[in-house]
Give the backbone structure.
Amino acid sequence: METIQSPTETKAIKDHKCDFCLGKIEKGSKYLKSVHKYDDIYSWKTHKQCSEIASRLKMYDHCDEGVTTDDFIETIKEEYSNLMSNNQNEIYESKDFVMPNFQGQLQFVLSHYGIL
């Protein structure tokens, strides 16, 4: 993958989808946009928080061709499980525990790292 334009902070003039978490980037909010070439030229849009947690969890260190949506989601789910096992194991192992959806897991991880 070749980076044509490094990530720049951009204000959304319409709604977009975050290429990391697949959540909505609201019109009027600030997000990061970069342009890459891998076979074709494409733009990558992401919440600033998603980019920051990817850096904090060193996701970029483990891939030569960039972090994909699947890589991001898998890493966040693993981090959520690790945090719950290490910090709230009684709740996590409880028969009444209900696993939150991915967005809930992401919010928990972001909160744990002070990114919100």
